[in-house]
Amino acid sequence: MDISKELFQIINQSGAHPALGWKHCQRVYHLSKELSQHLNLNDEVLYISAMLHDTGKYPMYALPNVDHTLRSKGVAMNLLKSYHFEQEKLAKILDAIECHMYYSEPGNSDEAIYLRDANILDNLGNIGLMKLLSLVGQDELIPSPDEALMRAQTFAEALPKKVYSKTGRRIAVKRREEIMRFLSGIKRQTSEYAWI
C-alpha cells in the first residue's frame, strides 16, 4: 500500500476529533514547508512526521498516562518498520514526532524544528481559536467556553516565545494579535466574560 494512503486511513479511522485529525496534519505539513522554503529539507521525512505526530492522542491509539508524543513515536515506529526506511531517515521522523510539542525542546534536525514551529503556530491565530472552541466539552482540558478563552489567552502569551525560526516568530506575532483582538471583542460583548 502507498504510505500516503495508509497514513490517511490511519488518521481517519483513529477516532481523531476533526480539529486534530487529517486537516490539522495537512496544515502542519504545509506550514512547515512554507517556513523552511529557504532550506532543502527531506519532504518525505516532513510529510510522514506531520501525518503521524498526533496519533498517540487519537482514541484508537491513546494510552492512559502516556504522553501522546511518546505514544505517537511508538505508533510511527511500528508502522514504518514495514516500509524499510534507512536508519537516518527513520531517526529524523521519530525525533520530529517526539519533539513536536511546545513543551519540548526543538529536535535535532531542521525537519523536527520546522514541524514543531508549524504545530505551535497551528495553535495560534484564528485557526487556533477555531480548534479550541470546537474542542469545548470534547477535551478534558477544555470543559467550557470560558476555559477555552483562558487557554487562548495562555497560548497567546506563551506560545510565540516557543517558536524557534525567524519566519515562524513573525507569523506568531501576527497570530497572537488575532487572538488578542478576538478576546478583546468577546470581553466587551460579555461583560468581562460574565455572560459566556
UniProtKB/TrEMBL annotation:
**Alphabetical list of PANTHER family matching this protein:** HD_PDEASE DOMAIN-CONTAINING PROTEIN, SUPERFAMILY HYDROLASE, PUTATIVE (AFU_ORTHOLOGUE AFUA_1G03035)-RELATED
Gene3D superfamilies to which the protein is assigned, alphabetical: Hypothetical protein af1432 (1.10.3210.10)
The upper taxonomy is: Bacteria, Bacillati, Bacillota, Clostridia, Eubacteriales
Query: Ranges for the HD/PDEase domain?
Result: 17-133
The lineage's top-level taxon is Bacteria
A Pfam family annotated for this chain is: HD
Organism of origin: Dehalobacter restrictus (strain DSM 9455 / PER-K23)
Q: What is this protein called?
A: Phosphohydrolase
